[in-house]
Amino acid sequence: MKILVGYDGSNSAKDALKLARDHAKSLDASIEVVTSMVKANENQYEAVRQAERGLEYTKALIAEEGIECDTHLLIRGFSPGEDLVQFAEENRVDEIFVGVRRRSKVGKVLMGSTAQHVVLNASCPVVTVK
Is the pTM of this model over 0.85? Predict the structure, then answer.
């Protein structure tokens, strides 16, 4: 079994990672941790470096439990929701874990919602954690 965790460093993403870790341990599954950035250029070096540090943190947290884990920083020009859904399809992921943030309905309409996109478009089960 393969589990994908959408990770952006937020508290809800950390909670989703911990729940996915527990789930993977009980099912003897592997974990793919994905951070998505729409674009990166020389002015965003620090943002890329911060994303890489976050992925290093996730790999260490998962490794403590002896779970197989790969991390991926995706900079493919897609929104994070699109990236997660596409990555899951390309890599035959069985389950996706994403953190959700509280946001008003108007905020979701104006800014979109990664979790909402994943829930509506993923071809596998999605677990949301707040």
Answer: yes
